[in-house]
Every structure is written in structure tokens, then in C-alpha cells.
Amino acid sequence: MTITIYHNPNCGTSRNTLAIIRQSGEEPEVIEYLKNPPSREKLVELIKAMGFTPRQLLREKGTPYAELDLANPKWTDDQLIDFMLAHPILINRPIVVTPLGVVLARPSEAVLDFLPNSNIGPFTKEDGEVVINAQGKRVA
Question: Which of 3.40.50.450, 3.30.530.20, 3.40.30.10, 3.40.50.300 would CATH assign to domain 1-33+93-140?
Fold first, then answer.
């Protein structure tokens, strides 16, 4: 079984998602998408598999989103994809591909619904937020 995470090691959500995957017993293929961005074909495939539009995958915070005027509805889907390919930081993350589907793991615990083994035991995020308690129950 192969799990792939499009990962940014500087992002806490991405680090938490990677930790959840590893705690499930899987060692995913880790693609640092800022260093190795997906091809146009792969990005289009990921967007479609998530049921997103390109606009829904755009990241605003910490990106050139405002400077590029990407909130403007004049941009077509193809143009938005062009922007993401030119500036991979615009691709929201982490994107996780599993045998059960593709998910933008925001929040990180969203990945649990896509892991073959989601019974990972207790899990606490880096910031101290408990996701799964000592009894193995998800905390809302």
C-alpha cells in the first residue's frame, strides 16, 4: 500500500498530518512540494480527486495571493493552475493520497478518514491539542 503526502516541513499542520500517518503504521512517500512541485497533469488529477476547484486549493496566508490579485474572479481555472505551478507556495497543504482517496488534511486529523488503519491510539498535535484521547476516542 502506498500513501503519499505533499508536505511542507515548515507547516505545523503538515507535520502533524505526517505524524498521524506514521502513527497509523505507514511510512508514506513524502514529497516536499515546494522543492518538487507536481506536474500540471498531477495537480489537475489531485484537484479533481478531492472534488475541488483550483480556486478552492489556493492558499492565501504567507503567499503572493494578494499581490497577484488572485481573489479577482477574472482568473480561469487554467490560469489559477498556472499560478500554482509558478508559485507552489500557493498550493494549500498537506495533500494526502491513500488507497481510500485524496484529502486536503486541514485540519490534520481529516487524514484519519482516509487511512486504512485509523485506530492509531492517543494523538496530540504539536501545539498540545488532543486529537485522540487515551481511551482511543476522537476529541471534537
Answer: 3.40.30.10
